[in-house]
Specification:
With 364 residues, the chain is mainly α. It has two domains: 168 residues; 136 residues, no CATH class. The chain contains 14 helices and no strands. Helix 11 packs antiparallel against helix 12.
Length: 364
Amino acid sequence: MKRYSWHFLLLILVCSGLSACGKPEAQAMLEDYAARVSRVLEVDINLDLSEAALAIPALPQRRERLLPTTEIREGVLDVWDFEQCGMMNLIAERNSSLGKVMAPSQKMRYEIRFIQALQNCQAQMQAIAEPDKKQREFIQRLDDIYAIKQANFPAELWNGLYTSEEISQQFALGKAPLPLQDTGFGHIQRALEQLHSLAQLSEQNTITPPQWLSDIEDVYFTFYSTDYGAQFLTGLVMLTQTLDRTATAIEQRKQQSPFCPKGHQPRRATILFNVFRKYYVCEVQPYMALIQREGQQWLTLHHAIMDTLPPPPAMQRYRAQVLALDTADSLWQQWQAASQRHTDAWQAILGQCDLMPKAPQDVR
């Protein structure tokens, strides 16, 4: 009895290890689907989803994502002029030891608050009916500073978003594919919408920061606490490889000889149809629908931000390759092409057996 208990415990430990170190559910599901098609067709499908993520271009280095801005240096006596606008604490915040090493999110928050304070200061000084010489000189200097800050503003917003570690993590390589369900997309969607609202400040003549700006680190924590974007990209390329190489196998088998001789429907045709219905329609298609529905929204939100702000050249190239929905040879378009090819292959071979259902198709 003691020996039996030991072996039983060992089995539990081994199984637990396999669960912890096993493949992600989505990857296992896609590999199982391709393996079943391969067995029925008796055609090898060279699937290597662990390497699929190599098709994803790497996010440019931070220095390539960083936009240059013009720094303003004011003399001590000149700075005191801002006391009449109540800006001294804000200026001191930036000049402090912590202010000089602000994280991108905090630097962006500071710039939003500073440009709003400048606008308020301008309005206050312009309301003076008969400014004296010193006030007129300050108003001119204030206008010059505001012009520089306004020109910097889109770049400051860009740097605060796409050079931060939290958002960069969304484009990391080597992550597991998106789960089959419970992806947590709602939280990411809300956070991206909030960042888009910040990007839109660059288009406003009068800056009105959102009320949640003081809690911006909560927004960034949403990105820090999930790999959603990286998982979506991995799932996308895994789907692309699976559909494309499965289509290749079906096409090769069809070229060898009729899978269903005219007037005959062999047992292997029924098995193939069951694989199509049970594993493609019932398992792969729902995952495709998930990738389509959530992924398209994720990409669209990034596009909305990048259409508002000025991406540097390296990010423009990355956007065309990784984030574009309609650019030729982008990851999304590669998936669309693989989906259509996969649909056509199934229609051809099941149509040959008079088994092709009319309704189910790849999610486009």
